[in-house]
Amino acid sequence: MLIIISDNWSVSFFPYSKPGEDPVFAVAGSRYITVARPAGKSNPDAVEVIRVFKDEDDDEDFYYCTWTKNLATGAPLVCAAGKGAKIKIFDVKEGRIVQELTGHGGDINWLAICPTNPQIIASTSDDYTIRVWSLDPSHKPQPCAAILAGGGHKDKILTLAWHETGRYILSAGIERIINLWTLPELPDENTGTDHPTRIHYPHFSTSEVHDDIVDCVSFYHDLIISKAAKDPIVLWAINGFSSNSPPPPPASEPTTHDTQRSTRSAFTPSSSSYIPATANAFSPTMPPHTHFTRLIQFHNPESDLFYTRFGLFQPPTPEGHTILAMCSNSSKMMFWDLARLEEYFEYSNLPSQLQQTSRPEFLMPVRSRNRQGKQTSAIKPHLSVPTHIIRESSTQTESTNSTNMEAQDTADTGRLNEVDTMKTKDLWDSKYSMADPSRELLPHREEVAKGLEFVGRQVAWSRGGEWCVVAGSASFVAVFSRWKS
Question: Domains of the chain: which residue ranges?
Answer without folding.
Answer: 10-352+386-403+445-481
